Amino acid sequence: MRLTKNSTAPNFSNLDLDNIAFQLSNPRKKLLLLAFFRYASCPLCNLRVHELIKNYPFLKDRLEIIAVFQSPANKIKQYVGKQAIPFSIIPDPERKLYQLYQVENSWLGFGKAWTIKIAQVFDAVLTHKYLPGSIEGEINRIPADFIIDTDNKIIEAYYGNDIGDHLPLADILSLVKQHEAR
Predict the structure, then answer these.
(1) pLDDT tens digits, residue range 20-47?
(2) Kind and range of the H or E element at 68?
(3) Would you call 158 exposed, middle or buried from its count of C-beta atoms within 10 A (0-12, 13-18, 19+)?
Protein backbone atom coordinates (compact mmCIF):
# COMPACT_ATOMS: atom_id res chain seq x y z
CA MET A 1 0.00 0.00 0.00
CA ARG A 2 1.37 3.42 -0.97
CA LEU A 3 2.48 5.89 1.67
CA THR A 4 0.35 9.01 1.88
CA LYS A 5 0.60 12.67 2.72
CA ASN A 6 0.51 13.39 6.48
CA SER A 7 1.62 9.88 7.42
CA THR A 8 4.86 9.26 9.31
CA ALA A 9 7.79 8.43 7.06
CA PRO A 10 9.20 4.97 7.77
CA ASN A 11 12.46 5.28 9.67
CA PHE A 12 15.65 3.85 8.21
CA SER A 13 19.38 4.00 8.66
CA ASN A 14 21.81 3.55 5.76
CA LEU A 15 25.31 4.45 4.66
CA ASP A 16 25.53 6.74 1.68
CA LEU A 17 27.98 6.51 -1.21
CA ASP A 18 30.68 8.20 0.91
CA ASN A 19 30.06 5.81 3.85
CA ILE A 20 28.39 8.54 5.86
CA ALA A 21 25.56 7.28 8.03
CA PHE A 22 22.11 8.72 7.51
CA GLN A 23 19.26 7.99 9.88
CA LEU A 24 15.87 9.50 9.17
CA SER A 25 15.03 9.82 12.87
CA ASN A 26 18.06 12.06 13.51
CA PRO A 27 17.07 15.70 14.01
CA ARG A 28 17.05 17.86 10.87
CA LYS A 29 16.55 21.59 10.43
CA LYS A 30 15.38 21.36 6.83
CA LEU A 31 12.84 19.50 4.79
CA LEU A 32 14.05 16.32 3.12
CA LEU A 33 13.56 15.23 -0.46
CA LEU A 34 13.89 11.45 -0.48
CA ALA A 35 14.10 10.60 -4.18
CA PHE A 36 13.95 7.02 -5.44
CA PHE A 37 15.54 6.35 -8.81
CA ARG A 38 15.93 3.33 -11.04
CA TYR A 39 19.36 1.89 -11.86
CA ALA A 40 22.53 4.02 -12.10
CA SER A 41 22.88 4.04 -15.91
CA CYS A 42 19.25 5.09 -16.51
CA PRO A 43 19.46 8.15 -18.82
CA LEU A 44 16.25 9.68 -17.44
CA CYS A 45 17.48 9.23 -13.86
CA ASN A 46 20.76 10.93 -14.66
CA LEU A 47 18.88 13.77 -16.33
CA ARG A 48 16.85 14.26 -13.12
CA VAL A 49 20.02 14.18 -11.00
CA HIS A 50 21.43 16.84 -13.37
CA GLU A 51 18.29 18.96 -12.80
CA LEU A 52 18.65 18.66 -9.02
CA ILE A 53 22.35 19.58 -9.21
CA LYS A 54 21.57 22.61 -11.38
CA ASN A 55 19.00 23.84 -8.83
CA TYR A 56 20.98 22.86 -5.76
CA PRO A 57 22.40 26.37 -5.09
CA PHE A 58 18.84 27.57 -4.49
CA LEU A 59 17.68 24.41 -2.71
CA LYS A 60 20.63 23.65 -0.40
CA ASP A 61 19.66 26.03 2.41
CA ARG A 62 16.02 24.92 2.29
CA LEU A 63 16.05 21.23 1.49
CA GLU A 64 18.22 18.22 2.17
CA ILE A 65 18.32 15.75 -0.71
CA ILE A 66 18.88 12.01 -0.45
CA ALA A 67 18.85 10.06 -3.72
CA VAL A 68 18.35 6.29 -3.61
CA PHE A 69 19.41 4.01 -6.47
CA GLN A 70 18.75 0.29 -6.82
CA SER A 71 22.34 -0.17 -8.02
CA PRO A 72 25.45 -1.04 -6.00
CA ALA A 73 27.93 1.69 -5.09
CA ASN A 74 30.44 0.83 -7.84
CA LYS A 75 27.80 1.24 -10.58
CA ILE A 76 26.54 4.51 -9.10
CA LYS A 77 30.10 5.85 -9.10
CA GLN A 78 30.58 4.63 -12.68
CA TYR A 79 27.46 6.28 -14.10
CA VAL A 80 25.86 8.85 -11.78
CA GLY A 81 29.24 9.69 -10.25
CA LYS A 82 30.39 11.28 -13.51
CA GLN A 83 28.50 14.33 -12.27
CA ALA A 84 29.67 16.42 -9.31
CA ILE A 85 26.90 15.57 -6.89
CA PRO A 86 26.49 17.89 -3.88
CA PHE A 87 23.97 15.71 -2.04
CA SER A 88 23.90 12.18 -0.62
CA ILE A 89 23.22 9.06 -2.63
CA ILE A 90 22.28 5.78 -0.99
CA PRO A 91 22.96 2.54 -2.86
CA ASP A 92 20.16 0.04 -2.22
CA PRO A 93 20.85 -3.01 -4.41
CA GLU A 94 18.76 -5.21 -2.08
CA ARG A 95 15.93 -2.70 -2.58
CA LYS A 96 14.99 -2.68 1.12
CA LEU A 97 14.19 1.05 1.09
CA TYR A 98 12.13 0.56 -2.07
CA GLN A 99 10.05 -2.00 -0.19
CA LEU A 100 9.82 0.17 2.91
CA TYR A 101 8.53 3.13 0.88
CA GLN A 102 6.38 0.95 -1.42
CA VAL A 103 8.15 2.09 -4.61
CA GLU A 104 6.54 0.26 -7.49
CA ASN A 105 7.29 -1.44 -10.78
CA SER A 106 5.07 -1.10 -13.84
CA TRP A 107 5.36 -2.46 -17.35
CA LEU A 108 2.72 0.04 -18.43
CA GLY A 109 4.82 2.87 -16.98
CA PHE A 110 7.89 1.43 -18.68
CA GLY A 111 6.16 1.40 -22.06
CA LYS A 112 4.45 4.75 -21.59
CA ALA A 113 7.76 6.55 -21.14
CA TRP A 114 8.95 5.50 -24.58
CA THR A 115 6.05 7.32 -26.19
CA ILE A 116 5.62 10.42 -24.01
CA LYS A 117 9.22 10.94 -22.81
CA ILE A 118 11.08 10.27 -26.04
CA ALA A 119 12.32 13.89 -26.26
CA GLN A 120 13.74 13.62 -22.73
CA VAL A 121 15.44 10.34 -23.60
CA PHE A 122 17.09 11.94 -26.63
CA ASP A 123 18.13 14.95 -24.54
CA ALA A 124 19.62 12.68 -21.87
CA VAL A 125 21.50 10.49 -24.35
CA LEU A 126 22.48 12.90 -27.14
CA THR A 127 22.92 16.22 -25.34
CA HIS A 128 24.14 15.09 -21.93
CA LYS A 129 25.76 11.77 -22.95
CA TYR A 130 23.96 9.75 -20.27
CA LEU A 131 24.34 6.52 -22.16
CA PRO A 132 22.47 3.45 -21.00
CA GLY A 133 24.60 0.67 -19.60
CA SER A 134 24.21 -2.13 -17.11
CA ILE A 135 20.84 -2.62 -15.46
CA GLU A 136 20.67 -3.56 -11.81
CA GLY A 137 17.30 -4.38 -10.34
CA GLU A 138 14.00 -4.15 -12.11
CA ILE A 139 14.05 -2.38 -15.48
CA ASN A 140 10.42 -1.37 -15.01
CA ARG A 141 11.01 0.41 -11.67
CA ILE A 142 8.98 3.62 -11.42
CA PRO A 143 10.53 6.55 -9.51
CA ALA A 144 9.00 8.03 -6.36
CA ASP A 145 9.68 11.21 -4.41
CA PHE A 146 8.84 12.07 -0.83
CA ILE A 147 9.05 15.47 0.85
CA ILE A 148 9.46 14.86 4.58
CA ASP A 149 9.31 17.55 7.25
CA THR A 150 11.55 17.86 10.29
CA ASP A 151 9.07 15.83 12.37
CA ASN A 152 9.27 13.01 9.78
CA LYS A 153 5.76 13.60 8.49
CA ILE A 154 5.32 13.14 4.77
CA ILE A 155 4.33 16.47 3.22
CA GLU A 156 4.14 14.98 -0.27
CA ALA A 157 4.21 11.38 -1.47
CA TYR A 158 4.67 11.29 -5.23
CA TYR A 159 4.63 7.97 -7.06
CA GLY A 160 5.58 8.43 -10.70
CA ASN A 161 3.45 7.26 -13.61
CA ASP A 162 6.34 6.22 -15.83
CA ILE A 163 10.09 5.56 -15.67
CA GLY A 164 10.98 9.24 -15.97
CA ASP A 165 8.23 10.77 -13.84
CA HIS A 166 9.36 12.62 -10.71
CA LEU A 167 7.74 15.28 -8.60
CA PRO A 168 8.10 18.43 -10.73
CA LEU A 169 10.75 20.83 -9.48
CA ALA A 170 8.17 23.67 -9.43
CA ASP A 171 6.06 21.60 -7.01
CA ILE A 172 9.08 20.96 -4.80
CA LEU A 173 9.86 24.69 -4.70
CA SER A 174 6.23 25.49 -3.91
CA LEU A 175 6.18 23.00 -1.03
CA VAL A 176 9.42 24.45 0.35
CA LYS A 177 8.02 27.98 0.18
CA GLN A 178 4.76 26.91 1.85
CA HIS A 179 6.75 25.30 4.66
CA GLU A 180 8.92 28.40 5.10
CA ALA A 181 5.81 30.59 5.30
CA ARG A 182 4.59 28.76 8.42
Answers:
(1) 999 999 989 999 999 999 999 998 899 8
(2) strand 63-69
(3) buried
CA angle 47, 147, 151 (to 5 degrees): 150
Span 89-122, pLDDT tens digits: 999 999 999 999 999 999 998 887 766 666 676 5
Strand partners, 141: 105
Cα within 13 Å of Cα(163), Cβ side? 26
Separation of alpha carbons 95 and 147, rounded Å: 20
This prediction has a pTM of 0.93
Chain CA centroid to CA 108, Å: 20
CA distances, 109 to each of 52, 79, 103, 140, 144 (Å): 22, 23, 13, 7, 13
End-to-end CA distance of the chain: 30
- Cα 136 from Cα 64, distance rounded (Å): 26
Q: Which residues contact 29 (CB under 8 A, 6 or more apart)?
A: 150
Q: What are phi and psi of 112, to 5 degrees?
A: -60, -40
pLDDT tens string 68-81: 999 999 999 999 97
Classified by CATH at the fold level, domain 29-181 comes out as: Glutaredoxin (3.40.30)
What's the one-letter identity of residue 141? R
